[in-house]
Amino acid sequence: MNAIPDLFVGLCDDAAMFPPGNAPAARAVTAHREHRAAWYAPLVGPFLVGAAHLEDVVRAGDPGPAVLVVPAGPDGLAAVLAAARDAGLRVAGAELPYRPGGTAADAVRALDSVLPAGGVVEIPPGQGLDEALDTVAGSGHRAKLRTGGTVAQAFPDAAQVAAFILGCVARGLPFKCTAGLHRAVRHTDPVTRFEHHGFLNILAATDTALTGAGADEVAAVLEQRDGRRIASRLGDLTLPQVSAVRAAFTGYGTCSITEPLAELAALDLLPVPHPQIPEHA
C-alpha cells in the first residue's frame, strides 16, 4: 500500500516562506528538499516562491520545481519570470491576482504571453465571480481562491466558497486554494477567533459538488466540524471519485507540510502503521 493515498498525492504546495510561517529562505529550501526525500514525499507539491523571495531562494540553493507567486499581478509577471529563469530557478508555473480595476482576462493574457501552461489566476469571491470563472475556464489555466489571511475579512464564508467550488466544477475548471487552511477540519482559532476552513472540508465539498448537489448542501459540508465524519466519507470514495475530486481541487498552499500530515494520521487517513512524522515544518 502506498504511504500516501491517491486522494492526498500532491495536495500540499509548500508555502513555508509565506505568512504565518514566514520561514527564511535557507530553512525553507532545506526543509523542502527533506520533504521531497521523505516517505511522505508524494504529499508534497511544488515550492512556492514569492516575487520578494526570489533572490533569497536563489542564494539558498535549488529547491526543485518552483511556482512563482506574483502579487503585483499581470504587470509584474514578465519581469519576475525572466529574473527567475535567468537565476536558474526551475519554474513550474506562476500564480497571480488581477489588480483592483483589472479583470481576469488581464491575468490570462499576461500568463499566455510568457507561460502558456502552469498558470493560476486568483479570483476574489463575490461579485463578478461567474464572469471571471468563464474567462479562466477557457484559458487552460487554473483558478485560485484565497481562503484566509491575517485579518477576519480575508476569510470567505461557506456560501462564498461553495459558490466558487460549484462554479469551477460546472465549468470543468481545476482550482486550488491558498491561505487559512491550517488544519484538516473547519475550526475557530482559539487566539484570533477567525473561522478557518478545513482542507478535508474542501475535498469533501468538491465531491459533493461533483454529485450535482446545490449550494446549500455544499456549504453545509464546508461547515462540518466533525473530523471523523468527514474522514469516513472521504475514506469511502472510490478510485474514480478520488480522481474526479483531485482533477477539480488540485491542491492548496500550506506553510507547513508536516502539520497536515499529522492531522491525516490522527484521523486514520494514512495507512497504519506509518513511519514517524517529523516535528519540523
- Could you describe the largest sheet, including whether it forms a barrel? 8 strands, parallel, barrel
Strand order of the largest sheet: 1-2-3-4-5-6-7-10
Helical content, roughly? 40-55%
Which CATH architecture would you pick? Answer: Alpha-Beta Barrel
CATH fold label? TIM Barrel
Please count the helical segments: 11
Uncertain stretches of 5 or more adjacent residues: none
What is the CATH homology-level superfamily?
Answer: Aldolase class I
Rg, nearest Å: 18 Å
**C-alpha termini separation:** 25 Å
Q: Quote the average pLDDT.
A: 93
Structure classification: alpha/beta
State the CATH class: Alpha Beta
Q: What is the strand tally?
A: 10
Shape: globular
Number of domains: 1
What order do the SSEs take from the amino end to the carboxyl end, as H and E?
Answer: EHEHEHEHEHEHEEEHHHHEH
Beta-strand fraction estimate: 15-25%
